[in-house]
Specification:
Bound molecules: iron/sulfur cluster
Order of helices and strands: HHEHEEEEHEEHHEE
Distance between the termini: 38 Å
Strand content: 15-25%
Number of helices: 6
């Protein structure tokens, strides 16, 4: 997706009719029963952090709980990866680092994605490849359904979902613009070949450099995959 496409997607999110989304929220009637499933690797392999989430986590718990979000966006010709933001670290079993087994260690300060889950509003291809809005994740797989949801909660949820989804795209837009500027300034280019080569080395346990887009600039991180049973 280029910068123009992202700006159009942000407009689409805000022009998605409020009354349609509120009807969906009301029909689903989701209520969290604190089963904790969405905090485990069964549901999510990472919790992506918008910049304000990452800053809040740093302030309340420390930087050591952050990692570059997985699935790096690109790699330059010198073998350095780039990604649009941080994620929360996971435990060795893949569960969120803040999941205690019965709840969230930092529930009040939890990331924005955790607050809106299972609601979402972004477009994805359906089984036939048609791009459509997806509104709910993990329907009927966790929590309680068909509860009465007040007008106030519906409206707050709608606002939080639109703010999160557009915030994610704005972060992506900032990332794309900064990549363009940074690559030009440093005479770098995107290299798929280097991406694959460095990723193979990373899978074998070699440390790699990942430049994480955070607060408008790249922050260099050096990470290595933990190899449990090296061949
Ligand atoms: S931050 Fe808290 S609410 Fe979010 S996935 Fe982790 S444990 Fe669950």
């Amino acid at each position: 997706m280029n910068a123009v496409d992202i700006e159009k997607e942000i407009e689409r999110i805000y022009s998605f009719p409020d009354e349609v989304y509120i009807k969906i929220i009301r029909e689903v009637g989701f209520e969290c029963d604190f089963c904790g499933k969405c905090c485990t690797s069964k549901f999510n392999d990472h919790v992506f952090l918008l910049d304000d989430d990452a800053q809040r986590i740093i302030e309340i718990a420390g930087r050591k709980f952050l990692r570059p979000a997985p699935y790096f966006d690109l790699c330059d010709n010198l073998g350095r990866f780039y990604v649009m933001g941080y994620a929360l670290k996971t435990k060795s079993n893949g569960d969120c680092i803040f999941y205690t087994g019965t709840g969230c260690e930092h529930y009040e300060a939890r990331p924005r994605i955790c607050k809106i889950y299972p609601y979402m509003l972004h477009r994805e291809p359906d089984e036939e490849g048609n791009i459509e809005f997806r509104q709910i994740s993990g329907l009927d797989l966790h929590g309680l359904y068909h509860n009465e949801i007040s007008e106030k909660i519906c409206e707050e949820t709608l606002k939080s979902v639109k703010d999160y989804e557009s915030g994610f795209l704005r972060q992506k837009l900032g990332f794309i613009k900064e990549i363009e500027r940074y690559f030009k300034e440093n005479d770098l280019r995107n290299s798929k070949q280097m991406y694959d080569r460095m990723m193979r080395q990373y899978q074998k346990g070699k440390a790699i450099e990942v430049y994480v887009f955070f607060q408008g600039r790249f922050k260099k991180e050096v990470i290595a995959k933990q190899i449990i049973n090296p061949e």
